[in-house]
Amino acid sequence: MSLDAIGGPAGAWLAAALVLGIAELLIPGVFLVFVAIAAAITGIATWALPELPGAAQVGSFAVWSVVTVLIGRRWYTDYPVGGGDVRLNDRAARMIGETVTVEVAIVDGHGRVRVGDGSWPARGPDAAAGTRVRVVRVEHGVALVEMLPPQ
Hints:
Protein name: NfeD family protein
Number of strands: 5
Radius of gyration: 29 Å
Subcellular location: Membrane
Order of helices and strands: HHHHEEEEE
InterPro entries: Membrane_assoc_protease (IPR052165), NA-bd_OB-fold (IPR012340), NfeD-like_C (IPR002810)
Structural class: alpha+beta
Membrane topology: Multi-pass membrane protein
Domain NfeD-like C-terminal: 93-146
């Protein structure tokens, strides 16, 4: 049997595997990949055994889906994916504890600080431009700062 024969039911199963694999990339959830593997196995079995009845193909897919999902669950139980930084997409939370530079003098409790490549409104004790301060929290997009202890 040549590769040209990958059409019909075998091609459909392999196409389904490809679609499920792409869906896993677009909708992450580490679940569709196992079903995609089951579809690929069924596609290969259907290619190797072209007379395999449709009911047997569906049965193979069902059995392999259960097997691959159970293997996947076991894998993720034994080797859990490490949690990333919970503040990854929370720029304000990531600023807490950072030492920043006063950009616009803090006068009567209000001014601006330079945070990375950006500028944030700030509240805190009066401080001249260029003074280094520490961010203690962020409220409603305003960095609340404190003076650094003398060194």
